[in-house]
Amino acid sequence: MPAEANSAIKELERALGYLARLSKGTTVYEKGVASSEVLFLTSADKARLSCENMSLSAAWTGGTPIKRVFYKSYESTKSGRLRNKRMPGTAALVVVGDVGHSPRMNYHALSLADHGMNVEIIGYLDSNPHQKIRDHPRIRIIPLKPPPKWFADVKPTIALGLKVLWTAFCLMWALMWQATWRLSMVMIQNPPGIPGLVVSWLVCKLKGASFVIDWHNYTWSILRNNYRIPTESLVLPRKDEVVDTAASKSPSAEGESLSPEASTSRRSTRDERQMLAGTPRPLRQRDRTEKPVEKKKPPTSWIHKYIQWAYNWEGKMGRAANVNICVTKEMRSDLAGAWNVRAVTLYDKAPSWNFKELSIEEKHVFFEKLCHSNEFRVLRAEETYPADEREVLESAQEVTRFSYRDAEGVAHLRESRPLILLSSTSWTEDEDFGILLDALKAVESVASISSTTESAPANRLPHFCVIITGKGPQKAMYLDRIARFKFRHVDIIAPWLEAEDYPKMLASADLGVSLHTSTSGIDLPMKVVDMFGCKLPVLAKSFRAIHELVVERENESSSTQQASPNGRLFDNSGELKAHILDLATGFPSHAQKLHELRVNIRRDYVVSWADHWDAVLGPVLKDQWE
């Protein structure tokens, strides 16, 4: 073969190298230097051609049928986007939790179904998913049987083992026999990852499906938080620490020359392996004269070993996955540094069909509906109207504490309405509701002083209506504390909302509060995404990755999600109180700072889940079958 041809082939192989990595064991060939067609040929097909003594060129030009051979334009291959091709087959989405409270997986299901895939969601049915999920012709829900309640009556170690075995058996049964046999993909959300990750990976091997992990957080970090284990007491090796150790001990780090032979990969020394494992190396003869440094041994309880095992297995499963998805750039970087797992960042986005702004008419109808419930009696109109609104309200057809419908049937918001401050919490230690409660006590004190003095409308504080949604173990304790306080300017209720009413409640509120703090520090609260979808400004508890979502100052975010301020961050109840007072002063007509935040969200937060999914994840998943 001429040298020019060899050179052209090598250049072409380099240009198409990335295709070989994406094709997962599929060999990539090019018809010719001037051709715009790419041939994908599996290793099995290549072996069959060899047995038949047929060359690749003969198979190409002769039209011999080759299984799983795909042609496509070289330009469309480079871009990675095949928008005109439907995704084939069936996808199983594994939720080892409540399907109704797993919105991100529901959105995945809708996106896959809208692209032509049949979707089977496997999880617990503690609550009903959205009607859009239940009624979709391409989506089927396979319920998992929850563990028996008597598991909680045995010792914690035995209960944990029983629960893992039960879940593994039920999930394996659902994926192997209740789900479609010919699965194209199994996507599992993590956490929880034990035993779901291993079971899903095994099923993918048996059924020849692609294995996809959607990382919402880390299983090991949640276990650590649940068992109150400090991170310092755990041995959690990281891949980037191995690189740093090798680099610091290399000759080049000490200013010496490094030959090409020495720059190749080498086996780590015993000292480096023991350092990575967290065990000190034994003293050598030359060290025996030195006084050994006493090193505190890490705890070796069963729970420490279990968490460390979970940490290592999460990394192994991540490397075994065909596609890894994560929720923040911080998590993508941490996955690569901890386990050498490569992931694509798919931010949570509120779907436009569910979370959106409401008109004044829609808000009034919603308030009227809620007023019929005793849980929302604080929304009912007061017995005596304010003097400046009395004439209008007395002639109105319908009146709530927040809105009214005039004699001509037109809905309006009241000038004297309270400010609705809404927070959605899980009532757990992860979300310290005490911060919000302490801030509201301080707001009550300031509002009491403000009400006794004459001030201009621009400096006046409104009445506050605080609505707390969600359920959790500490709800009863905090409601008991709230009942002991005698608030006069703050009403606090914790009602139950139907799934269809929650987005309407967000869109009817004036200010949102997020108390979420991540166990890993690198995920983002879905509730804030929902609030932004309804164009609701947010006060959020500060943690490591929250800056990717909530922006306090212009152009401070490193992500492209938001360009203008959309909320405020706080670390304690004092900062939260200051933000509430600053934004609420002059409400509703003169709260200029609050109004500016809402305008910024309307202007900048325009990307929906469907558009984001199509641009970021759709091409990656399609490449699994191309």
UniProtKB/TrEMBL annotation:
Residues 284-297 have a biased composition (Basic and acidic residues). The keyword Endoplasmic reticulum applies. PANTHER family: BETA1,4 MANNOSYLTRANSFERASE, CHITOBIOSYLDIPHOSPHODOLICHOL BETA-MANNOSYLTRANSFERASE. The keyword Glycosyltransferase applies. It comes from Steinernema glaseri. It comes from the Eukaryota. One of its GO terms (molecular function) is mannosyltransferase activity. One of its GO terms (cellular component) is endoplasmic reticulum membrane. InterPro entries: ALG1-like (IPR026051). SUPFAM superfamilies: UDP-Glycosyltransferase/glycogen phosphorylase. Gene3D superfamilies: Glycogen Phosphorylase B (3.40.50.2000). Its main location: endoplasmic reticulum. This is Glyco_trans_4-like_N domain-containing protein. Keywords: Endoplasmic reticulum, Glycosyltransferase, Membrane, Transferase, Transmembrane, Transmembrane helix. The chain crosses the membrane at residues 158-177. It is a single-pass membrane protein. Residues 245-297 are annotated as: Disordered.
